[in-house]
Amino acid sequence: MVKILVVDDNELNRELLVRRLKPKNYDVSVAGNGPEALEMIDEHNYDLVLLDIVMPGMDGLEVLTIIRQRFSLVDLPVIMVTAKDLDADIVRAFQLGANDYVTKPLNMAIALVRIEAHVRLKRLAELHKEFLGIASHDMKRPLALILDIMETISEDPPEGIILTENVTGIFSLVTNACKQMQSNITDYLDRHAMEDGRLKLVLSSTDLNDLIQQSVDGHLENARRKEVKITWSLAADLPSVHIDRARIIQVIDNFVGNAIKFSLPGSETRIVTEKIDGKIFFKVVDSGPGLSPEDIKKLFSKYAQMSAKPTGGEESTGLGLSICKQMIDLHEGEIGAENREGQQGSVFWFSLTL
Question: Is residue 118 in some structural domain?
């Protein structure tokens, strides 16, 4: 049964809503003020909140602000209840994360339609999350198994199997395809986790140079296959940084992978770290086609497709760079890209404050 919380300081209004909603098979609870409502929301799993804006003490806008600190628009829809002449409050409510609004005196036919619509959207979102979780789990396991088998055969070929150059090349293609699929799955899951506010950082003291070398090692075979030379210029006195290793290595992987993806055979990609004014900078300097003015405008936006095309037929979800930006934003760092001065290619970078 759908659980609805009605929050209103007027007892008659609460009773009216309970009487009109219960015959529609809604499980209705009531709260007479903001603090009581927040306590009930913490204790129960509601599907929707009908929240009056004008209440003494803590008003509906304050309650909404706290709700949105705990729940996304999808996880807990909130419909504001307001007088017809309070346009400024309605605008503010939407800015704070309201899903919808109804006006007093309530037109119950309209109110019921809006409640039903938002409950359906919540159910669809829950099904979508469930599907993503199941699909990603079911896809990750066979991919990991294939990669493990390919690695085992490459390192210790079974008796009778001869790893000719052609066979090794096929192994490399299969391995890279599996890794690309893993990357795509991770991108989609991270995007949804960030949109829902579920992505949390696990911070630890880390040597960024070591993390970079660990990441780049995973790209060396692809670089060799594409005949892209990787060089280093890592600052020797780099202090440790407090970061989420898994999230930062995602950003490094994306930058390095993109540099190789868009580089021509015989070109060079340079990895740089340096400390400047209390910040650590990581840079990937490539010799690719560079960025057009249009590319730079949309570079870190969702599903952005660049004017340059991968040189080896690689594919992209268009999510990687937007996820990188959000990862760096979560670390309160900065991220950017520009074309190389006087040379072909681009520089992708991020900085972290010490």
Answer: no
